[in-house]
From TrEMBL:
Taxonomy, superkingdom: Bacteria
Reactions listed under catalytic activity: GTP + H2O = GDP + phosphate + H(+)
Described purpose of this protein according to its UniProt entry: Zinc chaperone that directly transfers zinc cofactor to target proteins, thereby activating them. Zinc is transferred from the CXCC motif in the GTPase domain to the zinc binding site in target proteins in a process requiring GTP hydrolysis.
Annotated protein name in UniProt: GTP-binding protein
Keyword Chaperone among UniProt keywords: yes
Family recorded in the similarity comment: Belongs to the SIMIBI class G3E GTPase family. ZNG1 subfamily.
Residue span(s) of domain CobW C-terminal: 215-307
Coiled coil (UniProt feature): none
InterPro entries: CobW-likC_sf, CobW-like_C, CobW/HypB/UreG_nucleotide-bd, P-loop_NTPase, Zinc-reg_GTPase_activator
Keywords of this entry: Chaperone, Hydrolase, Nucleotide-binding
Amino acid sequence: MIVPVLLVAGALGAGKTTLLNHLLANPDGRRIAAVVNDFGAVDIDAQLLGTVTEEVISLKNGCICCSLQGDLLRTLSAVIKRDPAPDAIVIETSGISDPAEIIRNLMDPVIFKVAPLETVVTLVDPQRLRDAPELEQDALWRSQLRAADFALLTKTDLLDRVALDEVRAVVGRHKPQSAIFEVAHGIVPPDLLFSRELRAPRAMPRQMPVMSEPFATVTWTSRAPLSLARFQQVIGQLAARTLRIKGLLLFTEHPGKPILFQSVATRGTLAPAPLPPADGLTAQLVLIGREGEIAADQIDAVMRGIEMS
């Protein structure tokens, strides 16, 4: 059983619990377990989240990047063994946590095999950044932002366009604009946070508000022999125009050994896959990007470069 992990970071009051509450209430057909960490004896976040799901596990009296590190790893192991197991795990860090150490532990090969780190998002409160511009020089704030695949500007309904553009410019000094998204009321499309399943049919999501930025999905398949060396050469072209990629591939360099490729923002991984692509295919990829920035013919033109004649 493989259960992907979403790590949610950000300063105190940035809107992490609001995002997690919305995600748990609108799981897009997924069974989601949440691990929350509030620095203190009383875990307020877990109490709030408990109103929308029973799948909340609380780590109390410490920061999961330091004193509760062992508890986190034990908790992940216990959650995966539940019956039924969740489809995904969301870890909400404390506002005073540096996610870098958490990420380092989640990338441990033993953990990654069963609970791969899927996405890291860091939330930024634009109004706070405007009120306290010195926050940009804070080492923890910068580390939280540096660790993120995507930076989410929260509470954007409270600021006008000029103010938001000013904040985007500040955050843009630390993250590419393509990795910055604007969020109101914690609403984030699940496809931005979790890659699509390749085989299992997806449950129809409940109708809900969406972010202002629409997304497009492209599926690419092949039956031709594929070159791993060529794939590694062209994947950078795809990363520059997509937000997420997930796929199963068979390469001629490794006959009979299916490979799972996943990328989010600029972070990509290749790992052994339990099953090959479906229906005798050699490649089965799902790519997600901003609408208007990816197109099937463009993706096909790039990907045909990995096929061997």
